[in-house]
Design brief:
The protein is mainly alpha-helical. The protein is built from 16 helices and no strands. It has one domain. Helix content is about 85%, strand content about 0%. It is globular. The protein starts with 9 loop residues before the first helix and ends in an 11-residue tail after the last helix. One of its GO terms (cellular component) is plasma membrane. One of its GO terms (molecular function) is xenobiotic transmembrane transporter activity. This is MATE family efflux transporter. Belongs to the multi antimicrobial extrusion (MATE) (TC 2.A.66.1) family.
Length: about 450
């Protein structure tokens, strides 16, 4: 359904984006709740959570191709009227998620201590991080199954069921987390480790719901167009081809954010704790802005799968405008919340004294992030992963990483770290706007050549 000039009705974008919003926000929101719960234990447990949280984030952020790559491929097939094949992309992504998740679990247990020691800056912070991470890693295969499930459902324009699944799991976990951390009745709780147990519990529930959804799709598929639950190596190899570019792109993100946390830790527990608070708000807000990008991925992929190049370009223009407006509004909201929100996460005076250094960078970057994340969705929906890979690597190598490490050498602290993030985002802004205007990303077909 589209208007005369090729655009889609705003209500269609809202239909896809609105349910995607709580899905995208659920995990960072849970981490924010986790941060607030653990923050009441003091600066050291919060610093340990900061280091461990960044390490565990590699599981989701480094392997987002299971979600974004699957959406791009499934949406094209859905647009071409081949639903069972679109669901089949989800089946293969789920097999891949389980295999990779087991590897992550085993390798993660082996390297948890040395990596936490390198990032933590002190033995106490590293020990706290490892105690959380060893438990949380058992949820890695389940997190990846959830990524795959979100991917294929978005591809077939179903963002409502993922919303229900994710809210169910994370809602239960948010209730359990304070009890597991601080105890209830006469039980003192498990402290920092309790938050990791609550995290794994949420992942069990959500992954189970996505697996059940695949079984229902198989049962409902017509006999002439069945959904196979067996692994098909040709499709898995094709997904890995697209995934290669997205993994390299994610590597740039992770090199930057791991370096930022490592450098912040060198300035002491208050600095890394303040960085954790603002960084998690950044992650939360980035994924919130991605709700519009999720709609873009599904609509752009379906339009190109059906051969509608002009429609895809018109939708890209809509998405860019919506993302910019939302980013500006978010900047205003977070500026107004400066005097209230940091105190929700900690009452430590030393931490609160450092928070403003990063806060105003965070606020100023909201409009930039709104446009960048929206156009990322356009290009991801088109399967233009190679371009995103290259430009993200360049922006990281020329912008973010140099300023992070110069901050350590010259003692610039969080100001230097967040200035690096600003330069990184501006580099990406130039790249994605130029690419979108060129139209070279709009390649028609059920499968991108």
């Amino acid at each position: 359904m589209s208007t005369r000039d090729g655009r889609v009705p705003p209500r269609e974008i809202v239909r896809l984006a609105l349910p995607a919003l709580p899905v995208l926000a659920a995990e960072p929101l849970y981490v924010l709740v986790d941060t607030a719960v653990v923050g009441s234990l003091g600066a050291l447990p919060l610093a340990g959570l900061a280091v461990a949280g960044v390490m565990f984030a590699q599981v989701t952020s480094q392997l987002t191709f299971l979600s974004y790559g699957t959406t791009a491929r499934a949406a094209r097939l859905h647009g071409a009227g081949r639903r069972s094949e679109a669901v089949g992309e989800g089946v293969q992504a789920t097999w891949l998620a389980l295999a990779v998740g087991v590897v992550v679990l085993v390798v993660g247990q082996l390297i948890a201590a040395p990596v936490a020691g390198a990032l933590g800056g002190s033995d106490d912070i590293a020990a706290a991080a490892v105690s959380w991470l060893r438990i949380a890693l058992f949820g890695a295969p389940l997190v990846l199954v959830t990524l795959a499930g979100n991917g294929w459902m978005r591809g077939v324009h179903d963002t409502a069921r993922p919303m229900r699944y994710v809210l169910a799991g994370n809602g239960l976990s948010a209730v359990a987390c304070p009890m597991l951390v601080h105890g209830v009745g006469g039980w003192d709780g498990w402290g920092l480790e309790g938050s990791a147990v609550a995290n794994v519990g949420a992942q069990v529930v959500v992954a189970g719901l996505f697996l059940a959804a695949l079984l229902r799709e198989k049962a409902a598929a017509p006999a002439v167009d069945p959904v196979s639950l067996r692994p098909h190596w040709t499709l898995i190899r094709a997904q890995l081809g697209l995934g290669r570019d997205l993994v390299l792109r994610s590597l740039a993100f992770q090199a930057c954010f791991l370096s930022a946390t490592a450098v912040a830790a060198r300035f002491g527990a208050p600095s890394v704790a303040a960085h954790q608070i603002v960084l998690q708000l950044w992650v939360f807000q980035s994924l919130t802005l991605d709700a519009v990008a999720i709609a873009a991925q599904a609509l752009i992929g379906s339009a190109l799968g059906a051969g509608g190049v002009d429609r895809a370009r018109a939708v890209a223009g809509q998405i860019a405008r919506y993302g910019t407006v939302i980013g500006c509004l978010c900047g205003v909201v977070f500026a107004a919340l400066f005097f209230v929100l940091p105190g929700v996460f900690t009452q430590d005076a030393a931490v609160l004294a450092v928070v403003p250094i990063a806060w105003w960078f965070f606020v100023a970057l909201q409009p930039v992030g709104g446009l960048v994340f929206a156009l990322d969705g356009v290009l991801l929906g088109a399967g233009d992963a190679a371009f995103l890979r290259t430009t993200t690597l360049l922006s990281a190598a020329l912008g973010f990483l140099p300023l992070i490490w110069l901050s350590l050498v010259f003692g610039w602290g969080l100001a230097g770290i967040w200035a690096g993030l600003a330069l990184f985002m501006l580099g990406r802004l130039v790249a994605v706007t130029t690419r979108t205007r060129s139209g070279r990303w709009a390649v028609a077909g059920a499968v991108r050549p």
